[in-house]
Amino acid sequence: MLSSRVVKLDKGDHTRAAILEQAIQMASVVGLDGLSIGGLAERMHLSKSGLFAHFGSKDALQLAILKSGFERFGELVVADAMRLPRGVATIRALFDGWLRWSHERLDGGCLFVTASVEFDDRPGPVREFLVDAYRRWFGMFSEAAGRAIGDGDFRTGLDCEQFAHDINGVMLGFNLADRLFNDPHAERRAHHALERLLEDAKP
Amino acid sequence: MLSSRVVKLDKGDHTRAAILEQAIQMASVVGLDGLSIGGLAERMHLSKSGLFAHFGSKDALQLAILKSGFERFGELVVADAMRLPRGVATIRALFDGWLRWSHERLDGGCLFVTASVEFDDRPGPVREFLVDAYRRWFGMFSEAAGRAIGDGDFRTGLDCEQFAHDINGVMLGFNLADRLFNDPHAERRAHHALERLLEDAKP
Description:
Order of helices and strands of chain A: HHHHHHHHH
CATH superfamily of the domain at 65-200 in chain A: Tetracycline Repressor, domain 2
Shape of chain A: elongated
Radius of gyration of chain A: 18 Å
Number of helices of chain A: 9
Oligomer: homodimer
Number of strands of chain A: 0
């Protein structure tokens, strides 16, 4: 579901990449902690020790899953959106890209939402990576909102960090409605909330 | 931190209630799955078998934690809020009560947010309980929004379910800012977002 890369990789890299792709899907469902090394090895037709040879430890695997996931997210969602000529178009593309990422690309919804709840109280490299990834994600929205001010689409003086904070709340609200309620209206509700935020930001 | 009850309980009930109070705090930090029976028993100065005697299984303990947590939440947050004379006052009281519950009463933030992410992909009684609890929670906001329409504070035709959905997104956004970023402005941002929702709902 996470489309394949075009970069040339040797066999070891291919195996590692395939393990991570499978691990990202499994972690989206059961969480990074819930992911069993045995279960992952079985799905990949590897021995547990063969799988460990690629990562070294469960901690290292968890971090590799997030790093690989964030890289794929960058390719699938962020890259094209950030190149759009107007700030509002970037905001819509990031938002829609995230919805597809969460709802279609991953078996168990956004990996980062799950991981952030798992690791928010646990200091260490996984938490640090998540904080940094989320800061960058918020930064994309606040930067795009800043561009929208420059475009004349948003009002001068808009609090761009509050805007990014609010849009993240809309996405988390979607995640709950989609994953917990299986609400068929989750996407419509999320778009409705997005449009209200965009409307409120106008000059 | 979750204040004590006034109902008369016998010794077995007291022990069970004390175990659950400790378990709610621990699960708010590490999640329902992360909660170790051994760790909980140790904190309560009980043997693992002594603890199991009160609940029977880890599944039963998880469900008991959520049921007890939701009951406490009802006493601490919901009961007084629902009695307020105007819908908007009820909405503010539910919202502020939840912020205190998540930020002050629990060591690791709202137990239900953590549990909903853990169990959203896992059918069974824990997930069913969470769906029902969240539906009731959403229902309180949509009912209060309906009363606010009757009070003349919200416009006729407001989509009360969308309103409840949106306010939940604001709370989840607070949870991430508070727990993952330890953002000192999290509460101010949440209130700002709430005021915008209330403003948008006006006639």
